[in-house]
From TrEMBL, chain A:
Pfam family, one: p450
Single GO MF descriptor: iron ion binding
Lineage: Bacteria, Bacillati, Actinomycetota, Actinomycetes, Streptosporangiales
Identification of the protein by name: Cytochrome P450
TM annotation in the entry: none
SUPFAM superfamilies: Cytochrome P450
InterPro entries named among the record's database cross-references: Cyt_P450, Cyt_P450_B, Cyt_P450_CS, Cyt_P450_sf
Top-level taxonomic group: Bacteria
From TrEMBL, chain B:
Protein name (record): Ferredoxin
Cofactor(s), names only, from the UniProt record: [3Fe-4S] cluster
Cross-referenced PANTHER family: FERREDOXIN
This protein's encoding gene: fer
GO molecular function: 3 iron, 4 sulfur cluster binding; electron transfer activity; iron ion binding
Length: 397, 67
C-alpha cells in the first residue's frame, strides 16, 4: 500500500499549489491523507465537491468537536481558544455574525473608499520620495491593512507594529502551543484595554458601535466584544496584506498581465478576482468535521471524520476555469472560492476587494515600470503560516 | 424571470448587491439581503443568475416559469 499524502504538501513552484492537488482532482477528487500527528483526513479537490461540502451544514467548524482536523499542534491550540463565530455552527454563528455584517456591506465599504484611497496615495507618495529599491511588504503590503484595521477599530495609529507582530505569531505553523497562546494573550490584553476605553468613551468605530448596540443591552459581554475585535484583526490583517504583496509579485512575474493593467486600470476589478483565485492565500482554513454521514463522489464520510475542502485545488479546476494555471486578469473569475463558501464565507470580502482594487489600480498607474529588484529565485515565501505570502518583496522602477 | 430570497438564511456577504445592485440591496442594520424587484428587470438576468450561483448561503432562488 502506498503512503498517504501528508498535509501540508510542499509546493514545487511558489506561485502554484502542490502538483498532487491536480493529480488527485483528476483521479481521486475525494481522497484520504494524513496530518502531522498521523490522524487520517479527507482531501476534497474538485470545485463542485468543495463548494457542496462547504455549503453543507452537516459539517462543523467547531475545533473542540472530536475529529476536527488540525495542521499543527500550535495552530490547533490557538483555534481552541477562539470563541468567535468563525468557530461556531448555527444557530449561534448567524446570531453573532449579524452583529458585524452592517460594517462590511457593499455600501458601508463604498463610504470608506475615499479614506482608503487617501491612505494608498500617501503610502505611494512615500515610496516615490524614498526611491528604489525598496521592500514592498512593509511599505505597502503591511502598512495599508494595518492602517485600515486600526481605523475600523478606532485604535491609536501608533499601535500598528504591535498588532501586526502578535497577529502573525498566532498563526505560524512552527510556533509551539505556548508561543501561540502567549501571542493570543497579548492581543487579547491589548484589546481588553481598548474596549474598556471605548466603554467609557464610545467613538465612531466598530468596537464602540458593538458596545452601544449590543454591550449595553447585555446581548454581548465585554469579553465577547474583545474576541470579536481579535477576530477582525486576525482575519482581516495578514490576509489583505499578503494579497497586496503576493498579488503584486504575480503581476510582476507576468509582464503581459502587468502591461494590460497599466494600459487599462479599470481592469483592476477583474484582476483582483483573478489574483484571489490564482493565489488562494488561505489554503487550509476551510476544513471541517462531519457530524452526520455524508455521501460525496462515491465515498461515505462518517461522523467525526475531518475534511479539508481544498480551495486552492478547486480554484484550479479546469471545468470552471479554463487553463487554470494561467494568470489571466481579463477572465471572469468571480465564482472562485478564495473567500470560502457557505455561512462562513468571508465577512470582510467587500472591504478586501475595495482595498485591493484601489491598490493595484493606483500602484501600476503611478509606477508603471515597477519590477522585481532581485531574481525570482531569491524571493522568500512564507509557507509556514495560515496565510501564504512573501516575507519580503524587493522592488525597483 | 422571477427571483425569491430567503433573507432568514442570509449571511450578509454582499455578493448579490455587488454583482446585481439594481436587484439586490443590503439591510443597513444587519447586512441581510433586500430584494428590490421580484420580477427581474430586462437586461439584468445574467447578473441575477450570477448572484444566485455565488450566494454562499443558497438564499436566492430563480423561477423561469411565467417569465
Ligand atoms: C484578501 C483578503 C481576505 C481573504 C483571502 C479572506 C479569506 C477568508 C476565508 C477563506 C474565510 C473562511 C474561513 C472558513 O471557512 O473557515 C474568511 C472568513 C472571515 N473573514 Fe476573511 N479574508 C480576507 C479579508 C478579510 C477582511 C479584510 C476581514 C475583515 C476586516 C475579514 C474577516 C473575516 C471574518 C470575520 C471571517 C469569519 C466569517 C464567518 O465565520 O462567518 N476577512 N476569510
Amino acid at each position: 500500500m502506498s503512503a498517504l499524502p501528508r498535509l501540508p504538501l510542499d509546493r514545487e513552484c511558489p506561485m502554484h499549489p502542490p502538483k498532487t492537488y491536480a493529480r488527485l482532482q483528476a483521479n481521486e477528487p475525494v481522497a484520504r491523507a494524513e496530518v502531522y500527528n498521523g490522524d487520517k483526513v479527507w482531501l476534497i479537490t474538485k470545485y463542485e465537491y468543495v463548494k457542496a461540502l462547504l455549503g453543507d451544514e452537516r459539517f462543523s467548524a467547531v475545533p473542540s468537536m472530536p475529529g476536527y482536523p488540525q495542521l499543527s499542534a500550535g495552530v490547533g491550540a490557538a483555534a481552541l481558544e477562539e470563541r468567535t463565530f468563525l468557530r461556531m455552527d448555527n444557530p449561534d454563528h448567524d446570531h453573532y455574525r449579524k452583529m458585524l455584517t452592517r460594517e462590511f456591506t457593499v455600501k458601508a465599504v463604498q463610504r470608506l473608499s475615499p479614506r482608503v484611497q487617501q491612505m494608498i496615495d500617501g503610502l505611494i507618495d512615500d515610496m516615490l520620495t524614498k526611491g528604489p529599491p525598496l521592500d514592498l511588504v512593509p511599505a505597502l503590503g503591511l502598512a495599508l491593512p494595518s492602517m485600515v484595521i486600526t481605523l475600523l477599530l478606532g485604535a491609536p495609529e501608533e499601535d500598528h507594529a504591535f498588532v501586526q507582530d502578535r497577529a502573525s505569531a498566532r498563526i505560524n505553523f512552527n510556533a509551539t502551543p505556548e508561543q501561540t497562546r502567549a501571542a493570543t494573550r497579548d492581543l487579547l490584553g491589548y484589546l481588553e484595554k481598548l474596549v474598556t476605553e471605548k466603554e467609557n468613551e464610545p467613538g465612531d468605530d466598530i468596537l464602540s458601535r458593538l458596545i452601544v448596540t449590543y454591550g449595553r443591552t447585555g446581548a454581548l459581554s465585554h469579553e465577547e466584544i474583545v474576541h470579536m475585535g481579535r477576530l477582525l484583526i486576525s482575519a482581516g490583517h495578514e490576509t489583505t496584506s499578503s494579497m497586496i504583496s503576493l498579488g503584486t509579485l504575480a503581476l510582476l512575474e507576468n509582464p503581459g498581465q502587468q502591461a494590460a493593467l497599466v494600459g487599462d486600470p479599470s481592469l483592476a476589478d477583474r484582476a483582483v478576482e483573478e489574483l484571489l483565485r490564482y493565489l488562494t492565500i488561505i489554503p487550509f482554513s476551510t476544513r471541517r468535521v462531519a457530524t452526520a454521514e455524508v455521501e460525496i463522489g462515491g465515498h461515505t464520510i462518517r461522523p467525526g471524520e475531518g475534511v479539508f475542502m481544498l480551495t486552492p485545488a478547486a480554484n484550479r479546476d479546469p471545468e470552471h476555469f479554463p487553463e487554470p494555471d494561467r494568470l489571466d486578469i481579463t477572465r471572469d473569475a468571480r465564482h472562485h472560492l478564495a473567500f470560502g463558501y457557505g455561512v462562513h464565507q468571508c465577512l470582510g470580502q467587500q472591504l478586501a476587494r475595495m482595498e485591493l482594487q484601489a491598490v493595484f489600480a493606483t500602484l501600476f498607474t503611478r509606477i508603471p515600470t515597477l519590477r522585481l529588484a532581485v531574481p525570482m529565485a531569491e524571493v522568500s515565501f512564507r509557507d509556514d503560516s495560515v496565510t501564504y505570502g512573501v516575507r519580503a518583496l524587493p522592488v525597483t522602477w | 424571470m422571477r427571483v425569491r430570497v430567503d433573507a432568514g438564511k442570509c449571511v450578509g456577504a454582499g455578493s448579490c448587491a455587488l454583482v446585481a445592485p439594481d436587484v439586490f440591496d443590503q439591510d443597513d442594520d444587519d447586512g441581510t439581503v433586500i430584494l428590490l424587484h421580484e420580477a427581474v428587470p430586462a437586461g439584468h438576468e445574467d447578473q441575477v443568475r450570477e448572484a444566485a450561483a455565488i450566494c454562499p448561503a443558497g438564499v436566492i432562488a430563480l423561477n423561469h416559469t411565467g417569465g
